[in-house]
Structure formats: structure tokens, C-alpha cells
């Protein structure tokens, strides 16, 4: 399961020591939305079948320091969740009635 996959334009994949950036609409990319108990984030299954990736989308050696990569991805996820929570709070504030 991949968080945000059904809504993603790009997929960032770690392959050994390399990072590969794949266009989510590329031929051979199949994303299936999965049910989630968490209503703030979409979740999906990603299947890659003979996907061609341009050389400029392969970052050789970029994943050598995996800790940095995963910390960066965790930070990006936190920002996405924060945006979703802010959107939910704004929508609630629009309909809330104070003091009855």
C-alpha cells in the first residue's frame, strides 16, 4: 500500500542506491485505490509493468543515505496531512454555530 498514490502525479521510488521518479500516468503504471479507515489520506496499490523512465528521472546514488531520504519523505507526508487537517478545520469553521 502506498500513501497518496491514487492522487499522485509523480511516484518517487527507491531502487537500491538510486531514486527513480516515475510519471503516474506513464504507460505500464497501474494504480488501484484501496479502502482506508483514515479519511484524510488516499491509499493505493501501485503496479509497474515494463515502465520506461527517462535517464534524467533516475537519480544515481541518491538513496545511499536512506535515513535522509525517508526523513524527507516523512516530512512531506506530514505537510500533506497538515494541509488536509487545515482544509477540514476551515470547512468545519464555516458551518459551526457558536453558543447555540
Structure report:
The protein has 100 residues and is α+β, with helices and mostly antiparallel strands. It has one domain: Beta Barrel (Butyryl-CoA Dehydrogenase, subunit A, domain 2), CATH 2.40.110. Helix content is 30%, strand content 28%. The protein contains one helix and six strands. It has one helix at residues 66-95, and strands spanning 2-3, 10-15, 18-23, 29-34, 43-48, 58-59. The chain has a three-stranded antiparallel β-sheet, with no helix packed on it. It has a three-stranded antiparallel β-sheet with strand order 2-3-6, with no helix packed on it. β4 (29-34) and β5 (43-48) form a beta hairpin. It is elongated, with a radius of gyration of 17 Å. The termini are far apart. The relative contact order is 0.19.
Quick structural summary:
The protein is of the alpha+beta class and 100 residues long. The chain has one domain (2-95): Beta Barrel (Butyryl-CoA Dehydrogenase, subunit A, domain 2).
Which characteristics define this entry?
100 residues; alpha+beta; Butyryl-CoA Dehydrogenase, subunit A, domain 2; three-stranded antiparallel β-sheet; 28% strand
Q: Under the CATH scheme, which architecture would be assigned?
A: Beta Barrel
Query: Helix content range of the residues, please?
Result: 25-40%
Our count of helices gives 1
Q: Overall pLDDT, averaged?
A: 88
CA distance, first residue to last residue: 43 Å
Main pleated sheet: 3 strands, antiparallel
The best one-word shape is: elongated
What percentage of the residues does DSSP assign to strands (E)?
25-35%
Q: Tell me the number of strands.
A: 6
Q: Identify the strand order in the major beta sheet.
A: 1-5-4
Uncertain stretches of 5 or more adjacent residues:
none
How many separate structural domains? Answer: 1
Kindly report the CATH topology: Butyryl-CoA Dehydrogenase, subunit A, domain 2
CATH class: Mainly Beta
Q: Secondary-structure element sequence?
A: EEEEEEH
Please state the structural category.
alpha+beta
Oligomeric form: single chain
Specify Rg, calculated over alpha carbons.
17 Å
Amino acid at each position: 500500500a502506498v500513501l497518496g498514490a491514487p492522487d499522485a502525479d509523480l511516484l518517487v521510488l527507491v531502487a537500491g542506491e538510486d531514486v527513480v521518479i516515475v510519471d503516474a500516468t506513464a504507460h505500464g503504471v497501474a494504480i488501484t485505490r484501496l479502502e482506508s479507515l483514515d479519511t484524510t489520506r488516499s491509499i493505493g496499490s501501485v503496479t509497474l509493468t515494463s515502465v520506461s523512465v527517462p535517464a534524467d528521472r533516475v537519480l544515481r546514488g541518491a538513496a545511499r543515505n536512506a535515513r535522509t531520504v525517508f526523513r524527507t519523505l516523512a516530512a512531506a507526508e506530514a505537510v500533506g496531512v497538515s494541509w488536509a487537517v487545515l482544509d477540514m478545520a476551515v470547512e468545519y469553521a464555516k458551518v459551526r454555530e457558536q453558543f447555540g
